[in-house]
Each structure stands twice: as C-alpha cells, then as structure tokens.
Write a structure and sequence with these properties.
By secondary structure, the protein is of the alpha/beta class. It has 8 helices and 17 strands. The longest helix is centred in the C-terminal third of the chain and has 13 residues, at 280-292. The protein binds zinc ion (2 copies).
Length: 329
C-alpha cells in the first residue's frame, strides 16, 4: 500500500510502498478515506516530540471504512464508517484508567506516534477506541473533529463555563471550538498572530464577537482562554487580560517555555492548566454536540502524495481552518 513514512527525527515524510497492516486481536482494518493533519504531526516530524515508533506512519484524525475485523472484534461490520483518534490504546488497570482519566494512562499508546496512523491507504485500530461518525459530516469534514475537535472540546470543558472565552491561535481546533462555544451561548474573543487580518476575519465569520492580535487587550476581561498556538508567551498574554477566577488552558502537546511572571498576574484565583490527550468519553460527548451545533469545518484538501508539503504549509501558518489529506476519492 501507499503510505507517507517518517524514518528519522527530524525528518521529512516520504511516499513509500509498504506492506498492508495485519489486523490483530480486537482490531479492525480500515480503508482510509481521509486523514486530518495536526500540529502534533509536525512536532513529531520535527523531533519536538521524541521517541516515536520508527519508521512511522503519522496521522491520528482518520476517517475510513471497516474492511476486516480481527479475532474478538465484533463492534463494527464490514463497510461501517469509523473515526480513529489520537488515543489508540490504554491499559485499563492503572490508577488513572481506573479513575476515569484514561487520557493520563501510564501505558497509553497513541495513533500516529506509538502505532502507525492514517497517512496510508490502510490502517488497523483497536475497535474500542474508534468512533462512529455522525452522518451529518462528510469524510473530509469529519477528519478534523477527531483531534482538533475532540481535544479542543476537552480543553473547553477544563476552561469551565465562563462566558467570555479567549481563543489564542485561530487554526484547525479553534475554528471548530469557536462554533461549539457560540452554540453554548458563550462570547468568543479571537487572537491571531500579528498582522493576520484574514485570520481575524475568519474568526468573526464563525461567530467570534471580537478579533485582534495576541497581546491586544480585548474590550472586556476574559473568564477563560484556550491557547492553541505552541507559544509560551501566550499564557502570559492571556493572564494579563483575564478576570478574577479565570482559567487559562494550553491545548497543545508542545509549547515553548513560559516566561517567568509576577504572582500578581495569578493572584485572585486565576489558574494555568494543560490538557493531555482525550478520553473516549470526550469523543462520545463531542461528536453528537458538534452535529447538533451544526459545526461546519473549513478544510484545505491535499492528496496523500502531498503529505510532506501539507506539513510545510501548516508550519508556515498559511492554512484557513483544517488541513486534510484525501487518501481515497
Ligand atoms: Zn492505564
Ligand atoms: Zn492532533
């Protein structure tokens, strides 16, 4: 089969013919239709996330159809449409798994990192970690929901129920979360990189009531903020415009150092959080809510052959909405 493969870190994806994966116990084999491109893929290829499986097929926002079920796998029928997210396997027995926090599992394995992912014509996945995809979404439109949407949704829940929500970095995840937040009755304030007037227009078109540059002071203080761009300074920028009790949440897996700051910025029960991974419960709650909210994903589609160029485009920041690789047309 055709796949985009990483052989070393830092590296560049190369289109390669490799053997089709064999379906194992409890797994389904999936003919991949579309796979979303995530900033985490960039961090893996660039070596900012260390010790991936190598060689590796990246990609953890996979939409496809089941073509075969392995021994003991009975959840899906051949032909069923499924999505595969970042969380690929958990132990089920560690203290985190037993307390409803499988996102923190000590032995978790992640799709497109510890397990080959969806930048390929076929993949295999543990059926317990797959999601049925609501019929409202096409394969292409559903792909960004599987990480940008789900992990963003987890970040939104950790941000609490504050009304005035800041979103820093208006890319794949933020453009989905903005729509969810507005449907929940929140007021969204979008922050882009300096000079990105197109990004600000994009945010306003999706329901944000204000858009400006990172470091700008919004017209009102924020009750919560989610930081999607991997820039530690943004945690401080958000604290500076946060109201008492505000929660500032970093939704990314990698971030540059957070500069030191005075305690007065944190005082009055402001807090900083990170979000790690997702639980299956996050995904099961998010997908129906996204469908009910009428979430519309804005995508730039490239063929699998252009996986390396897609990562270059993401690195440049020149993407409106989400990048998706079309594997099967
Ligand atoms: Zn565990
Ligand atoms: Zn991701």
């Amino acid at each position: 089969m055709k796949a985009a493969v990483l052989v070393e870190q830092p590296g560049r994806l190369a289109i390669t013919d490799i053997a089709e994966p064999e379906v194992g116990q409890g797994q389904v084999k999936i003919s991949v239709s579309a796979c979303g491109v995530c900033r985490t893929d960039l961090h893996i290829v660039d070596g900012e996330l260390t010790e991936p499986k190598l060689p590796l097929v990246p990609g953890h926002q996979i939409v496809g159809s089941v073509v075969e079920s392995g021994p003991g796998a009975e959840r899906f029928a051949v032909g069923d449409r499924v999505g595969v997210p970042w969380l690929g396997w958990t132990c089920g027995t560690c203290r985190f798994c037993r307390s409803g926090r499988e996102n923190l599992c000590l032995y978790a394995r992640f799709t497109g990192y510890d397990i080959d992912g969806g930048y390929a014509e076929f993949t295999v996945a543990d059926e317990r970690f797959c999601f049925p995809i609501p019929e409202e979404f096409s394969d292409i439109d559903a792909a960004p929901l599987l990480c940008g949407g789900m992990i963003g949704f987890r970040a939104l829940n950790i941000a609490g129920d504050g009304e005035r929500l800041g979103l820093y970095g208006f890319g794949s995840s933020a453009h989905i979360l903005c729509q969810i937040a507005v449907s929940q009755g929140r007021r969204v304030f979008a922050f882009t990189r300096p000079g990105d007037s197109a990004g600000q227009e994009f945010a306003l078109s999706l329901g944000a009531e204000w858009a400006g540059e990172s470091g700008d002071r919004p017209p009102e203080p924020l009750d919560a903020a989610i930081i999607f761009a991997p820039v530690g300074q943004l945690m401080i920028d958000a604290l500076k415009v946060a109201d008492r009790g505000a929660r500032i949440v970093s939704a990314g897996i990698h971030m540059s150092d957070i500069p030191s700051f005075g305690y007065d910025l944190l005082w009055q029960e402001r807090s900083l959080h990170s979000v790690a991974n997702l639980t299956r419960d996050d995904g099961e709650k998010f997908l129906p809510e996204a469908a009910a909210a009428g979430v519309r994903t804005v995508t730039t589609v490239r063929p699998l052959d252009q996986a390396a160029e897609a990562l270059d485009q993401l690195r440049s920041g020149e993407v409106e909405g989400s990048l998706v690789l079309q594997v099967r047309s």
